[in-house]
Amino acid sequence: MKELIENFAQQLRQAMQAGESENVNLAGPRYSNVVMAGMGGSGICGNLAKTYVANKLTVPVLVQKCHSLPAFVGSKSLVIATSFSGNTEETLSMVRQAMEAEATVSFVSSGGEMLRIAQANNVPHLTLPTDAGPPRACLGFMLVQQLYLLHYAGLLDNAFKTELRQSIDLLEEQAGSIKVQASALASSLHTRLPILYADETFMPVAMRFQQQLNTNAKQLAHVNALPELCHNEVETWQNPSELNERLAVLYIKTGYDHLRSRLRMGLVREALEQKGQQVLEVEAIGATMLEQMFYLIHLFDWVSLYLAGLNKVNPGDTETINHLKRELSKV
């Protein structure tokens, strides 16, 4: 896992090269909506893509993580299905429904049943490297291919390519400092339950961090977004009071936080500190949204790896997840 995280910037570069080399035709009907279908490490890429394109696309984007598609999916829908293995049960279920609804479908996977369906139906398929590691370590490959599919569909202009190159440069420039910051943050979160707070815009980055803490460090974490948490969760820091000393609140700050969310962060911090709760902060670096997203993702991946070491667990082990998949395959 360490080598995979270390090579994240190179993964982004390889993903760009792959995207540029593809010859994909998605210039079908004038799309009225986009659905990003996927689960787990593949599914979070859909959330990140949606956040990035929110102010760039003129059609709504939905991220779907279950067995079913909403009723509005039809002939003017673009469904981008992502599954690293190509065999994810829930994603394949959505693929079949999308094809029945006569939606335009495109795939991102390393093969499996998804590749078979793509070849049998002449459906665009961007292929992931089979030796790239577990899905959660291949976020760069999957997210970049999703952006290229949106580009090939005529929905996303060329500007994202410049931001991708800038993101790669930033990660390479900040490689050393990211590790130092990640090691310190891991020490602060060790033996505690991380409470991750971010503005709604960057909620997918916080969710990705939570997932990496879960799978790599085998550690529970809680995520919530501003301003929503100010309407409910702020009242919960009373009971059970004995848990407070085992919690670690982390603010994830970016240049894209709403000004009112920043104001709320300060007010919530004051309330928490009055209750004796320390609040940690991480500030994103980068001139663009994509740079800040990838900076935080890379930083938090390192944190999850360092925490795995402190927790004395194998970050590559996902036996419980694998057990569930094996049992489900029997039914």
TrEMBL record:
<dbReference type="GO" id="GO:0004347">
    <property type="term" value="F:glucose-6-phosphate isomerase activity"/>
</dbReference>
<dbReference type="GO" id="GO:0097367">
    <property type="term" value="F:carbohydrate derivative binding"/>
</dbReference>
<dbReference type="InterPro" id="IPR035484">
    <property type="entry name" value="SIS_PGI/PMI_1"/>
</dbReference>
<dbReference type="InterPro" id="IPR046348">
    <property type="entry name" value="SIS_dom_sf"/>
</dbReference>
<feature type="domain" description="SIS">
    <location>
        <begin position="12"/>
        <end position="170"/>
    </location>
</feature>
<dbReference type="InterPro" id="IPR019490">
    <property type="entry name" value="Glu6P/Mann6P_isomerase_C"/>
</dbReference>
<dbReference type="GO" id="GO:0004476">
    <property type="term" value="F:mannose-6-phosphate isomerase activity"/>
</dbReference>
<dbReference type="InterPro" id="IPR001347">
    <property type="entry name" value="SIS_dom"/>
</dbReference>
<protein>
    <submittedName>
        <fullName>Bifunctional phosphoglucose/phosphomannose isomerase</fullName>
    </submittedName>
</protein>
<dbReference type="GO" id="GO:1901135">
    <property type="term" value="P:carbohydrate derivative metabolic process"/>
</dbReference>
<dbReference type="GO" id="GO:0005975">
    <property type="term" value="P:carbohydrate metabolic process"/>
</dbReference>
<keyword id="KW-0413">Isomerase</keyword>
<comment type="similarity">
    <text>Belongs to the PGI/PMI family.</text>
</comment>
<dbReference type="Pfam" id="PF10432">
    <property type="entry name" value="bact-PGI_C"/>
</dbReference>
